[in-house]
From TrEMBL:
This is CoA pyrophosphatase. Residues 40-184 form the Nudix hydrolase domain. SUPFAM superfamilies: Nudix. Its EC number is 3.6.1.55. The keyword Hydrolase applies. The lineage of its organism: Bacteria, Bacillati, Actinomycetota, Actinomycetes, Mycobacteriales. It is an enzyme of class 3 (hydrolase). InterPro entries: CoAse, NUDIX_hydrolase-like_dom_sf, NUDIX_hydrolase_dom. It holds the Pfam family NUDIX.
Length: 233
């Protein structure tokens, strides 16, 4: 469907990332919907950029993942935590190139510093059904990034994976009849699509620690105590 997209290079991933990139089956991702066939012309791509010691066999202490905070004044998904990403433009050769382009526009990330190592199964943002291609990238050192597009992003940082895995940073949030995983990091709440992708990756990788999945926290209450600044509910 996409001619000559940038090829993924699994061999460029360190051994500690192999549990994520080796599975070929489509992963079941909690809290994320199936793509709506009527929206397939509105495909998007996100970059899940992992960084850390290239020589480590198991999850290294410096392992991190790039996250952004969407500017609260945006019309859609305002104030939410997200991976860099956006719509696949007609000029893009495919999801990988689109994810790298969007990451560059939003965070200043130099695409030359990124090894695209895998793609996940096509999923959708539950709120609108739009199809999204998650692209897994790797950088051996924490990349230089900043809020390059203030209209879209007002904070960019590499979140320490060890912190995200801590049981006291993981909760289940609920809103009406929806529930999903969430993470607390740097005063922000990561929830929804982004948290579901992270949770799926952590479960697949075997890095996960036991945490309280049973208690459901009211989403609006948790957001009110966060730095997100979301207009939700």
């Amino acid at each position: 469907m996409f001619p000559d997209d940038i090829q993924v290079r699994p061999h460029a991933a360190p051994n500690w990332l192999h549990p994520i990139i080796k599975p070929r089956h489509k992963r079941a991702i909690e809290g994320v919907g199936e793509p709506d066939p009527r929206t397939m012309t509105k495909r998007a791509a996100v970059l899940m950029l992992f960084s850390g010691d290239a020589t480590a066999e198991t999850l290294p202490d410096d392992a991190g993942v790039l996250l952004t905070h969407r500017t609260p004044t945006m019309r859609t998904h305002s104030g939410q935590m997200a991976f860099p990403g956006g719509r696949i433009d007609p000029e893009d050769r495919g999801p990988v190139e689109a994810a790298l382009r969007e990451a560059n526009e939003e965070t200043g990330l130099d695409p030359a510093t990124v090894h695209p190592v895998a793609t996940m199964g096509l999923v959708s943002v539950r709120s609108n059904g739009y199809p999204v291609h998650p692209v897994i990238g790797y950088s051996d050192s924490h990349p230089q990034t900043w809020p390059a597009s203030k209209d879209e992003t007002d904070d960019v940082f590499v979140a320490a994976i060890e912190e995200l895995l801590e049981p006291d940073r993981r909760i289940t949030v609920g809103w009406h009849d929806w529930t999903g995983p969430a993470f607390k990091i740097n005063g922000y709440l990561v929830w929804g699509f982004t948290a579901s992708l992270l949770s799926s990756v952590f479960a697949t990788s075997g890095w996960e620690k036991e945490w309280d999945r049973e208690r459901v926290h009211e989403l609006t209450d948790v957001l009110a105590r966060s730095r997100n600044g979301e207009r939700h509910g």
